[in-house]
Amino acid sequence: MIHRPDLTVAAVVERAGEFLLVEERVRGALVLNQPAGHVEPGESPEAAVMRETWEETAWRFEPHALTGLYLWRHPESGRTILRLAFAGVCTSHDPTQRLDRGIARALWLTRAEIAGRERALRSPMVLRCIDDYLSGERYPLGALKQLEAHRAAAAGT
């Protein structure tokens, strides 16, 4: 059996002590998550996190660093997720922008408010990403290398 984790990205954004989250409907329940989603074929992780943040929150996101890479296996579905969390800033907002399907709203919450709603978190990665961000975890964006398939093949790697 081949192990193929789903590659996802997430934005960790702090503004005045509050973090940008989305309230989204998953299997009929409202859950909290960072703006996050899958990397599409041919898309860089940085482009994916910028796109997902825009689609889910109507905020323009500018990634500045990696906060971490998180590997998590969903206890019920068995799906494995590899999340690349990016720390950055929101540069502008368009309140007229329609949010992605399934997103009820974007909201800003403190770490304490998020921890108080721990049962509503989509996964344990949500709070872990925030805690790692708050503890100063930062890695340069250049640590993430994306190679073109035809160049890698030509180089023999």
Written overview of the protein:
By secondary structure, the protein is α+β, with helices and mostly antiparallel strands. It has a single domain, classed as Nucleoside Triphosphate Pyrophosphohydrolase (Alpha-Beta Complex), CATH 3.90.79.10. The protein has helices at residues 45-57, 111-116, 125-134, 149-155, and strands spanning 6-15, 18-26, 29-33, 36-38, 59-73, 80-93, 103-109, 139-140. Strands 1, 2, 3, 4, 5, 6, 7 and 8 form an eight-stranded mixed sheet that branches. A hairpin with a 2-residue loop joins strand 1 and strand 2 (18-26). The longest helix has 13 residues, at 45-57. The mean pLDDT is 92.
The CATH architecture: Alpha-Beta Complex
By DSSP (H or I, 4+ residues per run), the number of helices equals 4
Inertia-based shape: globular
Q: Order of SSEs, N→C?
A: EEEEHEEEHHEH
How many discrete domains?
1
- CATH homologous superfamily title: Nucleoside Triphosphate Pyrophosphohydrolase
Q: Mean of residue pLDDT?
A: 92
CATH class: Alpha Beta
User: Distance between the terminal alpha carbons, to the nearest Å?
Assistant: 24 Å
Radius of gyration: 16 Å
Largest sheet: 8 strands, mixed
The helicity comes to 10-25%
pLDDT under 50 segments (min length 5)? none
List how many beta strands DSSP finds: 8
Q: According to CATH, what is the topology? A: Nucleoside Triphosphate Pyrophosphohydrolase
Structural class: alpha+beta
